[in-house]
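Lab notebook, bench 4. The sequencing result for the construct came back, and we need a structural model before the next group meeting so we can plan mutations. Quick request posted to the team channel:

Model the 3D structure of this chain.
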Amino acid sequence: MLYELVPFRSFEQDEVYSCFTSILESFGSFDDADRADSAEWFSNSAAQLACYAERAGIGGNVWTAWLAKLFAEAENPFSLAHERRDASGGTMDGLAMQDMEQLYFYLKYDYAKLEKRMNVNMLRRFGKDFKPSACGAPSLERTAGAVIAELAASMEKAASPAELYKAVTDFYHAHGAGKFALYNGFRWDDKAREIVPAAPLEDITFDKLFGYEEQKRALIDNTVAFLEGRPANNVLLYGEGGTGKSSSIKALLNEYAPRGLRMIELYKHQMADFEAVLDAVKWRNYKFVIFMDDLSFEQFEVEYKFLKAFIEGGLEKRPDNVLIYATSNRRHLMKETWSDRDDKSDDMHESETMQEKMSLVDRFGLMIRYFSPEQEQYLDIARRLAAQYGIDAQSEEFEKGAIRWELKHGGFSGRSARQYVEHLAGLAGK
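Done. Here's the predicted structure in token form:
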């Protein structure tokens, strides 16, 4: 007997799932006209499977891959409970097992039999041994596909509904559910008012960031403490431009995403949406860093008050799984002028006003300064970057060229060194 799905009822809203299951359940009662319409519907859905598998870079059984996608994307009480690993074997668990019995039937059904009766030859051509191109462009679907393929492989091995249940719940335990399981980096979408994936991410790792070892170690130690559930601080990275502040934070995500780190980029003008962002993540079994790049405020901007309110907390407890990592060229974040210290100011409580504006930076428990390197440090960074491109960096001409470059490109910094080396690599056809 086939039942209505309960925890995984969202599957029934999917066009491809609805097509395959509806035709399978009703095919025997179709007349010739219905049969022709069903064949066209089935063929269109099978084509969607092939196109999805190609875009996602998933090989093997395309129907299994599609079901794995539906399981991975499902955010329901059952999947979220297993993400948090606090499922208790209640009624919902039993309903999920009932869903698995039905879904296992659909998973293992040989749709080639159905195609023969409809005189269709789609899944018989590519359905069980699909091979995606190896040169697919980086995309959101390729990023998610790498995770979904893992679940699809486990589902393919399942020999019973109980094993399908285990494959799916093991996936939720390891990766979680929904978009946070499939992606690591996100941004806040103003129009949709939701957190959306940001992919593909920059391929930045700490072994490609030269210099600033003490700064990177302090950042890593704080992040590891956060991931391990130990006390950790909000972090402000400040200093001259081009020194690697933003790159260090991006490298954190690439390094620690497998341990549950997720990052959400939020811009200054979006600070009023802090509460909405927190509501979306505070009960999830991940550690979130809200990344605010190049943060600073002018005198007339009041968005800093939203940031202070989050850091300080209100009546509702601040989430334990959220920290703020910000970068800025300004030590105090706020623009300060000599007129602010003018004794002729009309502000009767000038000192209090100044304290309000300047106290924001004090809310960051960890402040890490990235200073401009000296000439020899700059040249060392350039040499190490050159080695990655196979460029000879030992010649006197290389050093002279690096110094000439920094004079025209913003002074000594890691950014200038990288630009110089990439310029040479381009000329050499590297």
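Strands lie at 185-189, 194-197, 235-239, 261-265, 287-292, 322-328, 366-370.
Will bring this to the meeting.
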